[in-house]
Amino acid sequence: MEFKDRVLLLNEHFFQLYQSRFFQEKKTCSNSPIALLTHNDLRVMEFLDRKGILTMKELAEYLSLPMSTLTSIANKLVKNKYINRVRIDEDRRVVQVQLTKLGLQIIELRKNAHTSVSEELLKSLTTDEQDEFLRLLKKAIG
Fold first, then answer.
1. pLDDT higher at 112 or 60
2. Which domains are present in the chain?
3. pLDDT per residue over 5-19, tens digit each?
4. Pair 97, 86: CB distance under 8 Å
């Protein structure tokens, strides 16, 4: 098989993996508030879960989102009580955002859905194949 064919095959596998993850997540979360959140809403919340309190500027830079887009997302997430905005005393112009307890619960539901998909993926492999798959994936990602 030529390299370009391998690339096409890899793209197809990634697409299938994404589709299975997406449908599993939809099935797992269909009756939860996650179903009402957009991809970018969830990106913001997941990044805050990983990094903690961030300024809006930092968050926009990390996620490569225009500030206007992030502001719209933040407004929605604040309205739904998934994140809080906090102004720092040293410079009231700086706005920080953080997940609320409800936001953390939403992220936990999403993590559970992701775990379910990962378990299904690995179940089809032997223990040695799982180790090799994870080793190769880590190597490919860098």
1. 60
2. 33-121 (1.10.10.10)
3. 999 998 998 888 878
4. yes
